[in-house]
Every structure is written in structure tokens, then in C-alpha cells.
Amino acid sequence: MSRRQRVAIVVVAAAVLWAALDVAEAGIQRLYVLDCGQNVGKDQSRWSPGVNEGRSIEFSDNCYLIRHDKGLLLWDTGVPDSVAAMPDGLVVANGAITYRRTKTLADQLAQIGVKPADITYVAVSHTHGDHVGNIALFATSTVLIQGAEYEWAMAGPNKPAFVPTQTITKLGGDHDVFGDASVMILSTPGHTPGHQSLLVSLPKTGVIVLSGDAVHFQDNWTHKRVPQMNVNKEQTLASLQRIAATLDERKAQLWINHDKPQSAQLRYAPAFYE
Ligand SMILES: [Zn+2]
Q1: CA-CA distance, 101 to 20, in Å (whole number)?
Q2: Which of 88, 87, 79, 82 is nearest to 39 (CA)?
Q3: Which of helix, strand or coil describes residue 91?
Q4: How many whole angstroms from 177 Cα to the centroid of ligand 1?
Q5: Taking CA 175 as the corner, what is the angle to CA 174 and CA 176, rounded to the nearest 5 degrees?
Q6: Per-residue pLDDT tens for 175-222?
Q7: To the nearest whole percent, how much of the chain has pLDDT over 90?
Q8: Residue whose C-alpha is closest to residue 35's, from 93, 90, 138, 111
Q9: Could you give the percent of the chain with pLDDT greater than 70?
Q10: How close is the Cα of 213 to the center of ligand 1, in Å?
Q11: What is the distance in A from the centroid of ligand 1 to the CA of 257?
């Protein structure tokens, strides 16, 4: 082999390596955890039949912002920002739940330099009020929702405040948001007809499953309990099974949205996970 050939091989190898590094750097960049409210349940057994009857329970309520080189995805929108101005919170579900907010979603996004119009996709785990409370804030975003959830919500008494300028993408199962498998919507019905969870593969932190309300807190996860208000018990159990299998397969962590002690361990924005 001549010296010129050897030099050519080295140059080609360097170019291949450079391209590979470039690919590794592209794609998903970071995940922010945002404080999207605190919910107080009057009676825990609403979520854990027969367990802790008559005892109140406090829930965290998070939103999550994912930055990818192809755009921003907001996962859930929390309780309405207007609740931040209500000193006694907002009582819902015939008095069973009180929503509170210490800071608005809009302010937390502004703090990290994000305007609602910058958000490409808003995906909602489901259409309960503590998840779609700020959907109208994202008037130019594409909403990612299961078709089954959309039809169910729009036929019910508490229609989410979708706005006509939003593009509503009705999914029929799992969905690869950015086309590189880094952010995958997983169909996990049962709590509601089109409930969904989110699998996020971060370069440093690893794989995380964001629960939505497939499960509400750790003890229910451990005992695979199904809350009374869930629309379908068998589907709920199958979805819990599916999440457990995904955690095993992908060596993933489960971040349980409403689990207050677990959320207390998380780093909230402006900090982030890479
Ligand atoms: Zn919820």
C-alpha cells in the first residue's frame, strides 16, 4: 500500500467517525421537569380501593418538556394556570379533589426561554383536567392524542379547550414522535379509553417511562391496584403489564407523575436531564 493510499484510508476513516459522532449528537437533547400543580385527594381509596379509606393524599402533577433537534415536545399541560391565582385552589370532582398551583406553566417555560409558539408538539397522556388544563395556551402546536381519547372526551361533559388553530393528530396506538425512536408514545389504555404513556431515551440519563396516570403512586404500582374511576380494569392491568415489560426490556426507570415523594427527588426546571 502506498503512503498516499494509507493517507486516503485515514482520511476516510476520520470522516466516517466524524459523521458517527455527528449522528450521536443529533436528536434528543434534554428533558425538563415542570411543576404543573399539586392535587389533594380527599380520600386515597378513590385510587386504591379498600386501602387508606378516608385518608387524604397529596399528589404531585408534572409536565415535561423535551428538546429534540427536530422540535420541542410538551408532555401534559397540568392544571390550569389560572389556579395559581386562587388562594384556596380549585375544587373539582364533586369535592373529591382540590387542584393547586404555586407557579404557572407559562412562567416556567419563559424562565427557560421557551414561548408557547416554539412548542412543536403537545402530547397529552389523557384528557382529565389536571393534564389538559393549559391546552389552549399552545394555539399553534400539533396535539398528539389517541383517537379513542379524543372521541371519548369530546362526547363527554368536560371537553378539553382545544383551539381551532391547533392541528389535532389522532393516533391509533404507539407513535414515534421524531422518527428516531428517542421519544415514543406508548398506548396504555384503561384509566381512560385512549390513555398513553411516554418512553424517552436520553443520551446520558438513559431510558425513562413517563407514566401519565397509568399508575398514580408507588404503592399502587407495587400492588398493581386499579383506581375506582378507571374506565376499564382489564385494560388497566394489561397496560401496567406492558409498562413493566418495557422497563425490563429497556432497563428503564418509571417516573410516576402523581407520586409526590418520587417527584420530590427530581430536578425541576431550569435544571434538566440529558
Ligand atoms: Zn392526573
Answers
A1: 44
A2: 79
A3: strand
A4: 22
A5: 135
A6: 999 999 999 999 999 999 999 999 999 999 999 999 999 999 999 999
A7: 90
A8: 111
A9: 93
A10: 5
A11: 8
How does residue 4 score in pLDDT terms, banded at 50, 70 and 90?
confident
Chain centroid offset of residue 63 CA: 6
Strand residue runs (E) in 69-115: 71-75, 90-92, 97-100
Residue 217 Cα to ligand 1 middle (Å): 11
190 neighbors 233 (Cβ within 8 angstroms):
yes
> DSSP 3-state helix, strand, coil percentages of the chain (rounded to 5)?
30, 25, 40
Q: Which residue type sits at 63?
A: C
Q: Ligand 1 mean position to 123 CA, how many Å?
A: 14
What phi, psi does 122 have (nearest 5°)? -120, 115
Compute, in angstroms, the gap from residue 164 CA to the centroid of ligand 1. Answer: 25
Residue 190 Cα to ligand 1 midpoint, Å, equals 13
| pLDDT of 87 above 70 | yes
Q: How far is the CA of 30 from the centre of ligand 1 (A)?
A: 24
Of 71, 139, 70, 137, nearest in space to 108 by CA: 137
pLDDT grade for 35, boundaries at 50, 70 and 90? very high
Ligand 1 centre distance from Cα of residue 258 (Å): 7
Look at the chain and count its residues: 274
What span, in angstroms and rounded, lies between the C-alpha atoms of 101 and 146?
27
Ligand 1 centroid from CA 151, angstroms: 19
Q: What is the pLDDT of residues 142-175, one digit of tens each?
A: 999 999 999 999 999 999 999 999 999 999 999 9
Q: How far is the CA of 12 from the centre of ligand 1 (A)?
A: 53
CA of 127 to the centre of ligand 1 (A): 9
Cα of 34 from ligand 1 centre, angstroms: 15
